[in-house]
Design a protein that fits this description.
Helix content: over 70%
Distance between the termini: 27 Å
Pfam families: PAP2
Protein name: Phosphatidic acid phosphatase type 2/haloperoxidase domain-containing protein
Number of strands: 0
Family: Belongs to the PA-phosphatase related phosphoesterase family.
Number of domains: 2
Structural class: mainly alpha
Largest sheet: none
Strand content: under 5%
Order of helices and strands: HHHHHHHHHHH
Subcellular location: Membrane
Keywords: Hydrolase, Membrane, Transmembrane, Transmembrane helix
Radius of gyration: 35 Å
Number of helices: 11
Shape: elongated
């Protein structure tokens, strides 16, 4: 009987140690949300968001195809529209490279270090929403306003000979594509795209490196200013190239910054929050994992208690049988 009690006690201790070890492993694995383990579920949860992104892309294409409003441009207005017709310092094809692909490359680098698919997915989704919503707003306003660019004269009259109709409006004889672009000055698309993408990146970095942690590390602040400085220089180049008035650049920067802030806060806490380094979805998944782990540990404890009760009952029954045998021996002696 003694060795049975000893075996049962050792088995209970081993089970307790195994369950405790399993609980510690679960705690360690709480933050492991990789593309392989959670990527498909995250994509399914946001499939409608990706469909909306496709719709926004189609709208942007349509807005670039249709003609803008051809605003009245009189002869007396040409004094401010005779700036040289120059090439772009920042080509249009380069804007998606630094405003979209560069931030995505940084997001992927962070994922390699942290293995958080929620952070990777939501940062890319938020960035694309920021850029495409900004593009829709910018192109819609461009087409509706139809403000002439500073170099409109040379777009409209490439040979320098100006013509006007009976109402004093211009009669352009330049390339149709140049004239069409000449009516898309307000707001600046280069600037709005730049601030939408790089502004989102600046907010993302400020949360990751905890710029506003109240410790006074100004070097962190310099890091998040770099993307904004790059976007500002792009906007300045648009004025220097005489493709935009300064008001166009200012409006484009404002649109890009506001939209990027809204899109970032849709997926991430504010950078000055204690949990600003991760997306909302990560902390929700972490809480669910902890709840499941706690529930599993509670179930294990209950099972342990049941096993203890069963072991005690078994011991009592064995002791009862021993007492019965002693009673029978004593009664036989009598």
């Amino acid at each position: 009987m003694a060795w049975r009690n000893l075996v049962s006690w050792f088995s209970l201790q081993n089970l307790r140690g195994w369950f405790q070890q399993e609980g510690r492993m679960r705690e360690v694995d709480l933050g492991a949300h990789t593309i392989r383990s959670h990527g498909a579920r995250v994509a399914r949860n946001h499939k409608h968001d990706w469909l909306i992104l496709v719709l926004l892309g189609v709208i942007v294409i349509v807005l670039n195809i249709i003609h803008p409003f051809y605003r009245f441009v009189g002869k007396d207005m040409m004094d401010d529209l005779k700036y040289p017709f120059k090439d772009n310092t920042v080509p249009t094809w380069s804007v998606p490279l630094y405003a979209v692909l560069l931030p995505i490359a940084i997001f992927v680098f962070v994922y390699i270090r942290r293995r958080d698919v929620y952070d990777l997915h939501h940062s890319i989704l938020g960035l694309l929403f920021s850029v495409l919503i900004t593009a829709v707003i910018t192109d819609a306003i461009k087409n509706a306003v139809g403000r002439p660019r500073p170099d409109f004269f040379w777009r409209c009259f490439p040979d320098g000979k100006d013509f006007y109709n009976q109402w004093g409006d211009v009669i352009c004889h330049g390339k149709d594509s140049d004239i069409k672009e000449g009516h898309k000055s307000f707001p600046s698309g280069h600037t709005s795209w730049s601030f939408a993408g790089l502004g989102f990146l600046s907010l993302y970095l400020s949360g990751k490196i905890k710029v506003f942690d109240r410790r006074g590390h100004v070097a962190k602040l310099c890091i998040i200013i770099l993307p904004l400085l790059a976007a500002a220089l792009v906007g300045i180049s648009r004025v220097d190239d005489y493709w935009h008035h300064w008001q166009d650049v200012f409006a484009g920067a404002l649109i890009g910054l506001v939209v990027s802030a809204f899109c970032y806060l849709q997926f991430f806490p504010a950078p000055y929050c204690d949990e600003g380094w991760g997306p909302y979805a990560y902390f929700q998944a972490l809480e669910e994992s902890r709840s499941n782990a706690t529930a599993g540990q509670t179930t294990n404890v209950l099972n342990m208690q049941a096993m203890d009760v069963e072991a005690v009952s078994l011991q009592l029954r064995e002791n009862g049988n021993a007492f019965t045998s002693l009673d029978e021996l004593e009664s036989g002696r009598r």
